[in-house]
């Protein structure tokens, strides 16, 4: 599966058909990464190569015409894929993310962890669009317990990241995969299964503290990220974080009041504090399983700049092998579609390495 | 110092002079608890009894006419105390709280912990109001370190709580005082000094999570507080909180998704989680000092309903002796004014018990 540049080959939204024309006769799959605030569509050929990409802000909480029943989903789907489907109406369609939630187009009930790709395939729910196409909605994963966890979309990205490795060599090894973001996920994967996972609301809590508490009032966004301030926050959380995040975050203000942290440094310091608390919490969970961040070979999926912040922070916990996995979403959607029999990949797309 | 009912004897704002007339000829002190969002004024006689109280929303960030330089402070002060001062212009005036911050009427620089009442008195800064009265502004307290801490107003409440005890019997014992609220404080007091203190942004973080994250979207405010849901949150934080608050708070949503927590239970559950994390953090700090919450005899200052929640939560940490101190603000303002020589208390107001 060649992916080089697929993220940047966004189709011109003014005339998507023209740009997609180049490869539409080879189209084998349309896949949607349909979240809360964004929709991304991929068009693949039979070798799993991404021929075209479309992106919009039509997430499920941001649909173009939500007043008409289900019409909002149809309109967003048409806008993203209508031109492709007009030229290739028989191309199968798969979708992952919040589109399968209770607030989505159709509710694709969670499958329970541990879950492998076959479990996801078995949980696919179909919905027929007004244009006649059938969408295959990938379910999310649920982990029961005192602190239940859920994911929607990340399970597909995780299988996309696993798709790169040979099952024979790495399949039995326990792997740790991090997905930084609004609701950061950390998943333990073994033998091609998501064994268990944890959610840290780091991104959303950062935004809420920054925008809706006294901490934000003294902050000024710097021209460029301040790595020193970020690292200072990570280290404080790691070394002085015993009292927990509710206690340490106040220092973003008091270090300012005492002239030790400028207004421009405060956002990165707070970001470092929160990510440091997340990794400290992850370390505590790993310790319970006779494991540790130190020496881990782990993978990160997500926004590159954010993953880079996590790499810097992870090094403070002794973890210097954090590999950024690119195009996990496209790879994962392709992999689940393949496993579901929606596509018969051409020989060169066999996922053996 | 008799305080019974002083909080409820608010003067009728339509005709404050009439209601205050009863005792104005005995007036010995006007004291202001002037915070960010509220202003409360007390009129005392020479025995330290509160003759009248006035309350308004004219906190320093909510002044009536902030467009005129300093006029906002004068206007709010006149509105609160003008009628009293007209009849008793020579009565001394003391004020504590954010009115002494950099954003306040005058900046009363922090005194450094450890700090006793004499240190507060030495740090008093005076400001002359347009009406001719001089306000004596009590400074806040600063504790330096990697995680600096500041308080403004709470120091006066703490000395108000200490004022109840006999110096001879309790003065040398180490005492723990909690002030739940937007920015909860926990202070260690010994020999009449605030030795050190910690700030937990529990109240403000709760509000930010409730109002500005996905957690609030599934919440419905219950008709009355749900103690079971609250306790469940406290226990989860205590027993399963190793991964930290960023991880546990997501369960307010996922327990709802899995049908284990109703919409009406989610607010109290989240409140219990956060207060549980605060107390777990406090316990970790105490452990560093070979101390523990279990068996502590501590005092709580603040809103009664909130302090009651803390008492319930503290019991889960083995602390069953948490005494609610009432009228700590009025007592503290009176005590600092006395120590500053602003009033010469009548014999019956000696603070020996």
UniProtKB/TrEMBL annotation, chains A, B:
One of its GO terms (molecular function) is 2-dehydro-3-deoxygalactonokinase activity. InterPro entries: DGOK, DGOK_C, DGOK_N. Keywords: Kinase, Transferase. GO terms for biological process: D-galactonate catabolic process. Gene3D superfamilies: 2-keto-3-deoxy-galactonokinase, C-terminal domain, 2-keto-3-deoxy-galactonokinase, substrate binding domain. It comes from the Bacteria. This is 2-dehydro-3-deoxygalactonokinase. It comes from Paraburkholderia phytofirmans OLGA172.
């Amino acid at each position: 599966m060649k992916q080089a540049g697929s993220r940047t080959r966004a189709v011109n939204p003014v005339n998507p058909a023209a740009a997609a024309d180049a490869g539409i006769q080879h189209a084998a799959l349309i896949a949607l990464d349909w979240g809360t605030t964004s929709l991304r569509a991929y068009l693949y050929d039979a070798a799993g190569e991404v021929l075209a990409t479309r992106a919009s802000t039509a997430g499920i909480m941001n649909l173009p015409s939500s007043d008409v029943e289900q019409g909002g989903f149809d309109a967003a789907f048409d806008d993203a894929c209508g031109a492709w489907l007009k030229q290739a109406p028989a191309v199968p369609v798969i979708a992952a993310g919040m589109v399968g939630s209770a607030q989505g187009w159709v509710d694709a009930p969670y499958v329970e962890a541990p879950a492998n790709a076959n479990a996801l395939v078995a949980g696919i729910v179909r919905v027929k669009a007004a244009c006649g196409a059938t969408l295959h909605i990938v379910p999310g994963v649920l982990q029961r317990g005192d602190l239940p966890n859920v994911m929607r979309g990340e399970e597909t990205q995780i299988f996309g990241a696993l798709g790169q490795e040979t099952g024979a060599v790495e399949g039995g090894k326990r792997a740790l995969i991090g997905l930084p973001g609004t609701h950061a996920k950390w998943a333990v994967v073994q033998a091609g299964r998501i064994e268990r996972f944890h959610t840290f609301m780091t991104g959303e809590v950062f935004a809420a503290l920054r925008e809706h508490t006294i901490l934000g009032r003294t902050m000024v966004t710097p021209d460029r990220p301040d790595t020193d301030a970020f690292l200072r926050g990570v280290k404080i959380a790691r070394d002085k974080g015993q009292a927990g995040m509710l206690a340490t975050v106040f220092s973003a203000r008091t270090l300012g009041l005492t002239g030790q942290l400028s207004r421009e440094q405060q956002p990165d310091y707070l970001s470092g504090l929160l990510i440091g608390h997340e990794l400290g919490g992850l370390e505590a969970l790993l310790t319970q399983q006779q494991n540790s961040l130190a020496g881990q070979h782990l993978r990160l999926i997500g926004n590159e700049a954010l993953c880079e912040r996590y790499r810097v922070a992870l090094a403070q916990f002794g973890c210097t092998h954090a590999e950024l996995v690119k195009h996990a979403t496209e790879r994962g959607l392709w992999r689940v579609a393949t496993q579901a029999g929606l596509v018969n990949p051409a020989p060169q797309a066999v996922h053996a390495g």
